[in-house]
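#struct-help
A.M.: can someone run this one for me? Single chain, 602 residues.
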Amino acid sequence: MKKFFSDIFRPLGIVFGDIGTSPIYTLTIIALITKPKQDDIYGIVSLIFWTLVIIVSLQYAFLAMRFSIRGEGGQIILGEIALKNIKNLRIVSFISLLIYFGISFLAGDGIITPAISVLSAVEGIKVISYFQNLDQNFIIAITITIFIFLFYIQKGGADKIYPAFSPIVLVWFLALFIVGLLETIRMPSILIALNPIFAIEFIIKNGMLSFIVLSEVILAATGGEALYSDIGHIGKERIQKSWFFLVFPSLVFNYLGQGVYLIKNPNSQNIFFEMFNEHFPYLYVPFLILTILATIIASQSIITAVFSLFFQASNLGFFPRIKFKHLSKELYGQIYSSFVNYTLFICVVLVVLIFKKSENLGHAYGFSVALTMLITGILLSILNFYRKEWILFFLSVFVAICDLMFVLSGTLKIPSGAYIPIVIAIFLIFIIINYTKGQRKVYEKLQPIDFKEFEIMFNNAYENANKIRGTAVFLVRDYQKVPPYVINVMFNQAIIYERNVFLSLVKKDEPFGIKFGFEKELLYGLDLFKIEFGYLEFVNVEEILKESGIDEKVIFYGIEEIITDKWFYKIYAFIKKISPRFDEFYNFPSHKIHGVISRVII
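D.P.: on it. Structure tokens below:
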């Protein structure tokens, strides 16, 4: 029993912060837009309930969790599994494009989610009678102050407050459950809204209005993807237990309670806070503080997810190099990038300043979330089809169709603000395509030399050269294809050391694990040293070389100078120029590294 409760408790602060704060604004935004009558409220609550069942429980907690690589989950992992199992080149290209879109829209979501969460929580101040007429600019100032603190502590302090996250979120979900249950008891007939017939009737009866409502209902499921993406460091079973035994019931009863409150108070301007204030007026201020803390935790989860997203994309090679550093040896996933951190901070603050109110932000929020969910649904359908898991395939198709409905309804939000994550996503997709295409073009143009040809040249040069004392390391992708810069150093510049080592960095399909060692003596005076590492690993080359007894005097690597008159590749050249150098990315000893320039005309 102790283990059972421990399993429920552990994921709370890491996995469920985002979806747990959705009740703050979801039904309020829908009510302000639609002004629903009692029958409509039953239908809306039913839609929210079945969205949590189909999208979060079925798609993420059941279907997606069947797929992992060494226990790791997430959309990129799902795409990698699909790419490994499918040989059809057209489908492979389609899946690669899906991964690019998924990364880009998740990043767009990472900007709006913290903004709407914290802003909606701070707006709860207005429920206090003394602050009813508080100027919205003051609310915005408090929100931005919170973000200044939150992004400031990312560099070294966030991991220190992580132990407090789960206890706070536990209290949060218990509060959601209790106040929702108390309100539901006032009108038990609201429980019939759990019948899907009410959701179906609402859609059929209301036509275009139901389409508008669907575009907001998806807000209840935002953060659902975290159930799958966090299985690597929390565990599938723990997340499932926490979802089904605590989080899901708490959310359901809170939405049911909000439905009852809206029926009794059709002119409510902030259902979530007003409902709590009616039941526990003397506890409202502590609850408001708890709400703000919960949204800060939700925002922290999003920031960590964005760091992880760009780290994976950069490590997998389809996004320009971004310098990251580990913040904690105990906590997996605690990484930091100053570039990502400050860019995200500026974007979040701009979004708050542009939209000013959580209601306005709600009109911009949800479209990118629905798109990432649709991409997951498509990937699940493809995987289950190729595995001939027909029941799971049809379930995946059903889920993908539901995702598509949310995407189509979300297009209504584009004029009112959803264009922002779309613009961000298009920009990131262009960067990804530009970088990957540029990298392929450069590799084609470099024309590496076959090792057999290199062997003749090296043996002749090594025998006759005045060799420099010590060891030189040369970075190569594959020793069978020797890069031109090695030829330039050894033969054109006649720089040959007594001991020469080809260092090959090999990225594995698995996310974790580092293996290194000498493979073999390629030639007299030339060895091959290989480092194999998972694509989620940090590789400190300096430590590995020291541990392996390689006392190198210099490490050579190739630098490509891009010469082009095409605008597309000029952008690629600029990206290469401003990205961290190879030695910075892999922690090479800076005093020993030496870049050799090769001109590449494309």
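A.M.: thanks! Strands lie at 325-326, 335-336, 449-450, 468-476, 481-482, 497-508, 514-523, 526-534, 552-563, 593-601.
D.P.: also worth noting: The longest strand covers residues 497-508.
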